[in-house]
Each structure stands twice: as C-alpha cells, then as structure tokens.
C-alpha cells in the first residue's frame, strides 16, 4: 500500500505566476492558520491530510535532543533547528557543538556538501590553494544544511551513553525521543515515518498538527510572567522551548543565513519561520498564532508570500506587542516583497534586469478578508 498526501482535487490555489500579463503557472496546495488556542482561523485545501514535515520539524527534533542532555544554548541551540547556508559563522558554531561533546566531523552521517554560501566557499578554496593542496574543492558533512541538527543528535546520544554510530536509526533512543516530542506537541500520532534528505527519520503530520506543534513551541518559549501556564504533555519541555526561542530571536541569521527568507522574517517581523523541502513551511508568532502550508508541486517559491499573507489576514500581527504590529501592514508587505523574487525577462538599455511580472496570490487566498481583533 502506498500512502499519499492530499491530491490536486483536494488542493486550493495558493499563488500564481504572472508574466507579461499572462498567468504562466499556478501553485496549488493546502494551508491552515491557528489561533493561540489551536483553533483554525483559516483553512484551505486539505490541511488535515498528512504531509512529510521535512525541515519544518527541526524545532521538535532540537527539543528532543536537549531534553536528553545535549548541552545547547544560544547559537548552538538555534543551529540545531537550522537549515543553514554554511556561512563561516554557521560552520564555526556546529564545529564548536561537536567539539564540546567530544565528537568530530567524522561522526556526522549527513551527506557531504559544498558550502552554499559563495563567500565562505571561495575563502576555503583560497586557503587550500595557499597551502598548496591538490584538492581545493571544499566538501564535507559539516557544510550540509542539516549539520547543526545532526550535531545535536550526536550530543544527545553521547549525553545518555547511547551508540553514536546508529543515531539515525528510528529505533535509536534519540529518535524514539523525537517521536515522543512530536506526538506531544502536535497532539497527533505521526501517520508515517520516512527518511529525510539528510538521512534522519522524518514524520508525516497534518498541517494542522504541524502548525499546532510549532505554535506551542514559540508561544511557550516566549511567555513571560502573568501568561497562563501551558497545559498538556508538551509543557514538560518549557525550558527547552524557551532556550530555542530566545536563541533564534537573538540571532536570526543562524536559522538560514544573512538576508535569507526565513532569517529575514524572524529579524524584521519577530515571527518564527522555518521552511522545509518540497514546499513546506511553518511560521509562528510569539503570541502563538501559527500557519503551516504545503505547495503540492514541491516548490518553495510561493511559501513565504502565502504564509505571511495568511497570518496577516487572520489578524495575527494585531496581537503582537512588538515587531510587525508596531508598523502594521506596510512592514509585513515590505518583508513579503524582500523575500519574494520578481518575474524577470531580459535586460533594459542599461543592462539592468527587466521585471516583467510577479508572484501573486491565488484566487482562494485573494478572496479572504482581513480579520481585525476586537
């Protein structure tokens, strides 16, 4: 039997690509926005049908590792839930995490990769040439975008005295703890377990369960005195949630990279954002509003635009004591523009790239009225 996510017939139109006044492409998918209590405010497509959560799951994987004793704080905690672009700063933090746990790069079981950050890659190449190295092609598991998560898994295995050579096995104590944490925060049993691109187990959850889980992490991690105490199995992880939330808001560059979409959303709007492969993204405000969506074609081109628009139309930013609420819709719109690539075609007489179209909201979102809080 083959399990499946939702079908095109169940999906909604989330975004379209307009080129020269012609609708060239359509992104269909599913999405959901939840309020801080976990009740749906906006539902599109089939958000209760499972999807593989991919890297959007990383906050829960980091919480599991920390709860087992992985000594992560500050930037090392943030890198545990990052999909980093291998800037020099990312690599330094992951290296330090491994060293602190008595581990090395050779213990990482994620694939080898080149640094996605061009400046750091060139820096490594120049250093290799200066040393007269035969091979100047920098490639290592350390540069893979999930290396921070893998370092956290290894640190957790070392902390509990478990085998570090099998840390990616679904039966390993670290991965069993991840499954427990996922179920607690999502209030939902995963419907399937697969192998992620980095080799780690990845869980299939409904978008509603994913939004619920990450909304709880960020709300619980952001709560101050006077805020109602969280209830439920997830409440046992309040310390880890707080450490992660404080870490990523203190250093947004850690989660993806300077100027990258997720990091920009966190930095400019004070909203947690974590994309995943195959068109998945989750965002959550400090007050606990959350959105999760998947583009069915697996493209991430429209995910930031759609997620921020849905939070905006659900009235989520009106509930924030700081961040986006301070400047209203203009700032949210500016961030959407900053993280959404234009549609281009050729150059003008001065050699500048022509903008000939744009990514626009699909009909199923364009018709949603903006909600205002009382």
TrEMBL record:
<protein>
    <submittedName>
        <fullName>L-asparaginase II</fullName>
    </submittedName>
</protein>
<dbReference type="Pfam" id="PF06089">
    <property type="entry name" value="Asparaginase_II"/>
</dbReference>
<dbReference type="InterPro" id="IPR010349">
    <property type="entry name" value="Asparaginase_II"/>
</dbReference>
């Amino acid at each position: 039997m083959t399990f499946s996510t939702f079908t095109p017939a169940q999906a909604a139109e989330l975004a379209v690509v307009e080129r020269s006044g012609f609708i060239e492409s359509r992104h269909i998918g599913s999405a959901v926005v939840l309020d801080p209590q976990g009740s749906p405010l906006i539902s599109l497509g089939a958000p209760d049908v499972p999807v593989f959560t991919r890297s959007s799951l990383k906050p829960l994987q980091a919480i599991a590792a920390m709860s087992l004793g992985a000594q992560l704080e500050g930037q090392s905690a943030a890198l545990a839930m990052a999909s980093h672009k291998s800037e020099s700063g990312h690599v330094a933090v992951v290296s330090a995490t491994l060293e602190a746990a008595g581990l090395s790069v050779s213990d990482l079981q994620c694939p080898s990769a080149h640094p996605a950050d061009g400046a750091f890659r060139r820096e490594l190449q120049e250093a290799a040439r200066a040393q007269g190295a035969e091979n100047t092609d920098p490639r290592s598991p350390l540069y893979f975008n999930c290396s921070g998560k893998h370092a956290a898994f290894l640190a957790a295995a070392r902390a509990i005295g478990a085998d570090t050579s099998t840390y990616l096995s679904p039966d390993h104590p670290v991965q069993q703890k991840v499954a427990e944490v996922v179920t607690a925060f999502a209030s939902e049993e995963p419907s399937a377990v697969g192998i992620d691109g980095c080799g780690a187990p990845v869980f299939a959850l409904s978008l509603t369960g994913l939004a619920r889980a990450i909304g709880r992490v960020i709300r619980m991690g952001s709560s101050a005195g006077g805020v109602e105490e969280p209830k439920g199995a997830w409440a046992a992880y309040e310390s880890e949630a707080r450490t992660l939330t404080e870490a990523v808001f203190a250093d947004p560059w850690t989660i993806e990279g300077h100027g990258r979409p997720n990091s920009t959303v966190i930095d400019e709007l004070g909203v947690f954002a974590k994309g995943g492969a195959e068109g998945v993204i989750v965002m959550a405000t400090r007050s606990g509003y959350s959105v999760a969506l998947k583009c069915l074609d697996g493209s991430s081109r429209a995910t930031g635009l759609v997620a921020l628009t849905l939070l905006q139309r659900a009235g989520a930013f009106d509930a924030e004591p700081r961040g986006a609420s301070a400047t209203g819709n203009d700032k949210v719109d500016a961030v959407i523009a900053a993280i959404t690539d234009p549609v281009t075609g050729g150059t003008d007489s001065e050699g500048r790239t022509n903008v000939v179209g744009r990514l626009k909201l699909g009909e199923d979102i364009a018709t949603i009225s903006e909600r205002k809080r009382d």
